[in-house]
Design a protein that fits this description.
About 40% of the residues lie in helices and about 20% in strands. The chain has about 290 residues and is of the alpha/beta class. The protein has 2 domains: about 170 residues, HUPs (Rossmann fold, 3-Layer(aba) Sandwich); about 90 residues, Pantoate--beta-alanine Ligase, Chain: A,domain 2, CATH 3.30.1300.10. The radius of gyration is 19 Å and the shape is globular. The chain binds pantoate. The site of pantoate has 10 residues, from strand 2 and helix 8.
Amino acid sequence: MRIVRTVADLRAALAPVRGSGSVGLVPTMGALHDGHLELARQARADNDAVVLSIFVNPTQFNDPSDLAAYPRDEGKDVDLAASVGVDYVFAPEVTEVYPPGFSATVTLHGPIVEALEGAHRGVGHFQGVTTVVAKLFGMVSPDRAYFGQKDAQQVRVVQAMVADLNIPTQIVVVSTVREPDGLAMSSRNRRLSPFDRARAAHVAEALRAAELAAAGGISDAWSLLHSARKVLTDNAIDVEYLELVDADTFRPIPVLVTGPAVLAVAVVIGGTRLIDNVVLRQGSAS
Ligand code: PAF
């Protein structure tokens, strides 16, 4: 496995594969965990060459202290990427991605970027994500790119971006990987104290409560959200948002109908912000 720092070196490395084989990209901000490794395993199974990018993208952080606190351990990440068969770790400097004079942005509009994460982290968050993901797609020209369902809204935003801009990259969505107690894997989990780590399991428990309610035939948003919120409030967890939205438009919905809906949550536990979600359908969990 090779570590590549520049776009020119990456393109040269991938040149022999182009035309005859496929390239898979796993975009990450490092601090790899088993959720990322699952994306890389899927990319390895699907493609001839696998690139895993590690770039803590400053433009998607609304809070400078959150950016400063973002965990970084490139040495460990490189070992983990090698262990699942990644061919190239692409770890550019900030100036390689945003050279002096850089002024482009990729901006989507509407509820998919304005709801939930957009409302709470600011619309600049998804602008930062779409800009860097578009840049990574331009740098790597992947046939497929792999994203986790844990970031359901990010997945929908990236899908909309590739559709709107006719980017010929297939977006592959991989199921959320969870700890044995249900906590969704996240680079932020390592910031939790042992006490808060134990409390964080209630986030998945809350989603599960809504999932069971939906499976039991409850379809109105108020009742579904109430069943989830009760678990969180009973455990004194600060809820930033808890919403039921249409899985395609990300507009809030009052009742489950035929299409899939996303019940999405953001909480703050011991100063650490965590997000998670579950996909619900009328009369069943999925
Ligand atoms: O999900 C992430 O880790 C980031 O948002 C991404 C997709 C790597 C863009 O910086």
